[in-house]
Design goal:
β4, α5 (124-135) and β5 (141-146) form a beta-alpha-beta unit. The protein has helices at residues 21-31, 39-49, 64-69, 99-106, 124-135, 155-171, 205-211, 425-432, 442-449, 466-479, 498-514, 528-535, 573-586; strands at 7-15, 76-81, 85-91, 111-117, 141-146, 178-181, 225-232, 241-246, 251-253, 257-261, 265-273, 282-284, 288-293, 304-307, 314-325, 336-341, 344-357, 364-365, 375-388, 399-404, 407-417, 454-460, 484-486, 518-524, 543-548, 563-567. The protein is elongated and about 95 Å long. It has four domains: 7-211, Rossmann fold, CATH 3.40.50.300; 219-307, Translation factors (Elongation Factor Tu (Ef-tu), domain 3, Beta Barrel); 315-420, Translation factors (Elongation Factor Tu (Ef-tu), domain 3); 442-586, Rossmann fold, CATH 3.40.50.300. α10 (466-479) crosses α13 and α11 (498-514) packs parallel to α12 (528-535). The chain is 24% helix and 30% strand.
Amino acid sequence: MINNNFDNMNIVIVGHVDHGKSTIIGRLLADTNSLPEGKLEQVKETCRRNSKPFEFAFLLDALKDEQAQGITIDAARVFFKTPKRKYIIIDAPGHIEFLKNMVTGAARAEAALLVIDANEGVMENSKRHGYLLSMLGIKQVVVLVNKMDLIDYDQARYKQIVEEYKAFLLEIGVEADSFIPVSGFRGDNIAAGTGNMPWYQGLTVLEKLDVLDNKKDVKKQVFRMPVQGVYKFTAGGDDRRIVAGTIETGVIKVGDEVVFYPSGKRSKVKSIERFNVPEMDEDTAGSATGFTLEQQIYVTRGELACIAKEPKPEVANRVKTKLFWLGKKDLNKDRRYHIKIGTQKVTAELEEVVTVLDASTLSTTTRQYVKRHEVAEVIFSLEKEIALDVAENLTETSRFVLVDNYEISGGGIVVDNLKDGQYGLGERVNTQVRWSESAVTKEERAVKFAQKPVLILISGKKGVGKKNFAGYLERGLFIEGRNVYYLDSWRDDDITNRAALLESMVKVSDVLLKAGNIVILVEDDIHKSDLDILNNVIDPQDIKLVWVGDVEDHNVPVDLVPVDLIIEANETKDSVYHKIKKMLVGSKILFTA
């Protein structure tokens, strides 16, 4: 009897070029009746008209250039089902030039089929792919020794390949779930056994897939959802702010207290929001979903939503990783890269190459660069803290890709969060002190102080008198009885970590804003990465950007933080004070009698 409550499972199929992956998938589609009606006959007729022998691979290789070259170029997703579950099988390229696509395709798989040609035996890419699967945290690996028909179903040859590849996998800490002798062309041991290999008494490929672990008990997983965006509705009186993303693992329910990392902000789930579905009280892994919060807090794309009572993720700015490098240029210390985990994207610099491993020979070297198609263990320093899990704890949120000059050039997993003993303000706030909501509301403070909290950010080119204006503004507002604080900082002219200092200043500003203050902050030549740091902590509605001198459009993305006031560099301090005060009154930040 067919089960109507199907599980869904992602499987990736990998292997050296021409070892028969596409043929095996085509056979799986045909033997499980998962093809569109008439598709098999259509492909056979096309082959007949072109005087071309029919191959099951043609069912999958739909792109013209793929059929012309006889190789799979991109990762194709196909679907089939058994009486137990539905499968998404990802055909990942085997050619060395397409390893990047293979990494992308394997990233979300829960198990892998690794195909080895019985005639050719274990090849270089057979080993590379085995190592890549282990790096991506795929622990369920089924090895298919294919094309057994070409060697007359020789058991001795099968055993030789099994012993050779099993020894390789053990050296890299991987244990294959099983080895199955198959013929994709003839269908041996794909969906059913045949009399061609009486010496094999194990499961067929379909039977083996059905007994693999699907991690189906998502209620035992910790909840992780990278925030894709926050969407606010205004039409028809709709005032919802929906935090949206795809749930990587676990379950979220109405009433759960959620914490967003790395900011540490928290609130409770008010409602679960899915497009065009009935009202629901919970949602689970794999869903593209959203939720509203009981108490509105400002969160941004890139944060990692977690549940307060569950184990916390890591918050790191130095990480040890295992990666496979695919870039055209060597991975080295002279270049800056972007690391992407979930929806987070930050600048990363190579700090140290711990070791470089040849994935096929397992030889190592300690040189401080990584060449194309090499596997390495390396340490990265990140521009700012990000939230993640180490692979040992949770594979899904430890996986990353590296971007070099707008191109995905590597991928791997985070194996350790490295703490250097120097704790910045952000880490102290996040891990040692928990900032709780005050018994006094924001509105009560506003009424008491006759003002709303605001961050006045004064920027412009260096040397135009910004700090003089800031000090004069603070003194003038203070004399008028306002709660105001000019948050100044001393820095060397050659300071290298501008982002870290700004992040510390912004977090202090956030605390002062919560106390109801007007905060004045000065920053030279503000640009997009600075605004990203600001927006990660403070709601843009609570920021007023005052620009001194000429505005350069490439430095000030007005769609993110509009310039609220432009001041001429040669204006008097008194004139600047009155212009800023007029802006604050007009924005209803300063209450007047």
